[in-house]
Amino acid sequence: MNLPNSITMSRIIMIPLFLWILSPHFPWQGPHGTQEIVASILFVLASITDGLDGYLARKRGQITTIGVLLDPIADKIMVTAAFVALVAYNPEVVKVWIVVVIIGREFLVSGLRSIASSEGFTITASELGKLKTVVQIVAVVSAILAHRWDHWQIGLIAIPVKWYAIAAIYFAALIAVISAVDYFVGFWRKIDHASKDRRKAAVLSRGKSVRIS
Questions:
Q1: N or C: which terminus of the chain carries fewer CB neighbours within 10 A?
Q2: Per-residue pLDDT tens for 7-44?
Q3: Helix, coil or strand: residue 153
């Protein structure tokens, strides 16, 4: 197994570890926030591997079928696991309907990608898709930290951790909807163009058949 695929596998392995850290069975729980800090660091590391494996695969020329298959699966499982776990871990901040919207967007895009692949074209990630990823990372980490702290007091400055978490979660839901619409529009244009090309090819083929006969 090459290095990019090993990094992808490490992200998949991190997912059950992340869920265990957020569970009541994690041994180092307490007022110091060890549980929240460890979970946040692990999720950030997993998110970094999301971009690192693809970058290394392209740079080293190690794009493989298994890598193409595992990478999006690992991403979807990571996002789904994090938000579902947060519904139970911090329900005051992470609402069920928000998680349904975010996860629904992932399923929608996966379905559209499958259809696009079967039609012989791909849809590249837009800037909205990249923004969505960053916002989701911020939303997950801030929601984890808000489980322990309402705010951080740094000298005379008070950082409203809980308020930032709520704002980030709602913004993540909004970006998920907007990016899903943007992706669907791009998909519709591509598939409509592909349909027109097939109709033109069919007309030309029938015209050649008539001339030959």
A1: C
A2: 888 888 999 999 999 988 888 887 788 999 999 999 99
A3: strand
- Average pLDDT, rounded, for the chain: 83
Range of the structural domain that residue 58 is part of: 1-89
pLDDT of residue 116: 75
Q: Which domain-ending residue is among 69, 89, 109?
A: 89
On the 0-12 / 13-18 / 19+ scale of CB atoms within 10 A, 154 is exposed
Instruction: Show the 3-state SS of 37-96.
Output: HHHHHHHHHHHHHHHHHHHHHHHHCCCCHHHHHHHHHHHHHHHHHHHHHHHHHCCCCCCH
Express each pLDDT in 76-116 by its tens digit: 888 899 999 999 999 999 999 999 999 998 888 888 877 77
Q: What are the helix (H) ranges across 119-160?
A: 127-146
Provide the number of structural domains found in the chain.
Answer: 2
Does one domain contain both 98 and 45? no
Give the H/E segment covering residue 170: helix 161-212
- Do 65 and 95 reside in the same domain of the chain? no
Q: Are residues 20 and 122 in the same domain?
A: no
**Same domain, residue pair 17 and 76:** yes
Handedness of CA 175, 177, 179, 181 (dihedral sign): negative
